[in-house]
């Protein structure tokens, strides 16, 4: 059993930490201005005149969701949690028939392009939202953009939190672990190769694709672009899933599960914040949800989420 300090010296683990940290840094970069101007964004003066933002936010709920998501997203990779040591190449015949075709795939280009598609789908809601404010002259303007940005960040952070919780619990080997031609020094590092289920790239791209498409449709229900936005963002997500398999990073069941989980979170988070004609959002109407607080929890051998009610 290797110590966490030794694990961090492994270049593959450092690469994983860098990749995870860069994603979470994107969340933090967008979260900082959101927190700084939360009062102005969530309760703008224009709200009394009729805001065009489709969302209603509770500052405390948004803060607890973001804090929990960011913390759980970063904690496992930065702390060195998870299985340590090396494992010899595994028998590909032990992989189920549904997934076995992925064994043997390897493409650094596919791996790189999947990263580009992931970051594109993450950045798209923020970039297009800013352009929308500048060109459409919406009633709520930048305060409405702040609401939209916070909901997108909640979606992303919760997706990362759920994904990391499942991956560090399931500890499924990646396809590469069944390919002896790719074994460095005759073995694979458990800390990086036991994170196959489910796909983080796929879950995040589908979550952001669904959340942004939902947002765009709510803001512009009569626009001819609604269909192309849904099709375009989800095409990127599907391509990302395919590229993760082509790169040999995930099995088919990993990306299918990631797509389902990401789509569910990408719909539910914005839906719970959505304001209908003449009524509040589900979170705004529910005292239970409005008083719910999430708190990251850490233990010697793992981590989790604590939930408490404030009344």
* SS content category: mainly alpha
Globally, the shape reads elongated
The counted number of beta strands is 4
Major sheet: size, sense and barrel closure?
2 strands, antiparallel
Mean pLDDT: 75
Strand order of the largest sheet: 1-2
Number of domains: 1
In the predicted model, the low-confidence regions spanning at least 5 consecutive residues are: 1-11, 25-51, 281-286
Oligomer: single chain
β-strand percent reads 5-15%
Q: What percentage of residues falls in helices of 4 or more residues?
A: 55-70%
Radius of gyration: 21 Å
Calculate the terminal CA-CA distance, rounded to whole Å.
Answer: 46 Å
Order of helices and strands: HHHHHEHHEHHHHHHEE
Helix tally? Answer: 13
Report what the structure shows:
- This protein has 311 residues and is mostly helical.
- It has one domain.
- Helices cover 63% and strands 6% of the residues.
- A two-stranded antiparallel ribbon has the order 1-2.
- The chain is elongated, with a radius of gyration of 21 Å.
Describe this protein with a few key phrases.
311 residues; mainly alpha; 13 helices; elongated
Short description:
Helix content is 63%, strand content 6%. The strands form two sheets. The protein has a two-stranded antiparallel ribbon. It has a two-stranded antiparallel ribbon with strand order 3-4. Helix 5 runs parallel beside helix 7 and helix 6 (108-136) runs parallel beside helix 9.
């Amino acid at each position: 059993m290797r110590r966490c300090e030794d694990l961090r010296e492994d270049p593959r683990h450092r690469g994983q930490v860098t990749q995870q940290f860069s994603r979470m840094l994107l969340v933090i970069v967008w979260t900082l201005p959101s927190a700084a101007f939360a009062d102005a964004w969530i309760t703008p003066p224009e709200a009394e005149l009729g805001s065009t933002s489709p969302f209603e936010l509770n500052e405390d709920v948004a803060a607890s969701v973001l804090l929990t998501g960011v913390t759980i997203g970063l904690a496992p990779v930065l702390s060195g949690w998870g299985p340590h040591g090396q494992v010899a190449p595994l028998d590909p015949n032990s992989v189920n028939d549904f997934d076995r075709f992925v064994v043997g795939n390897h493409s650094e280009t596919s791996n790189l392009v999947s990263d580009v598609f992931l970051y594109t789908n993450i950045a798209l809601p923020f970039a297009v939202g800013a352009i929308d404010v500048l060109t459409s002259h919406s009633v709520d303007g930048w305060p409405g953009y702040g609401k939209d940005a916070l909901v997108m960040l909640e979606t992303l952070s919760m997706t990362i939190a759920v994904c990391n919780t499942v991956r560090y619990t399931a500890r499924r080997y990646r396809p590469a672990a069944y390919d002896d031609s790719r074994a460095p020094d005759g073995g694979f590092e458990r800390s990086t190769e036991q994170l196959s289920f489910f796909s983080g790239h796929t879950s995040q791209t589908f979550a952001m694709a669904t959340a942004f498409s939902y947002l765009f449709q709510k803001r512009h229900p009569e626009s001819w672009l609604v269909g192309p936005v849904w099709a375009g963002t989800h095409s990127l997500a599907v391509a990302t899933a395919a590229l993760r398999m082509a790169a040999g990073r995930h099995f088919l069941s990993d990306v299918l599960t990631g797509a389902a989980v990401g789509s569910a979170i990408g719909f539910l988070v914005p839906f719970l914040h959505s304001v209908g004609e003449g009524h509040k959002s589900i979170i705004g109407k529910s005292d239970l949800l409005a008083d719910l607080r999430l708190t990251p929890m850490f233990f010697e051998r793992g981590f989790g989420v604590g939930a408490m009610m404030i009344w």
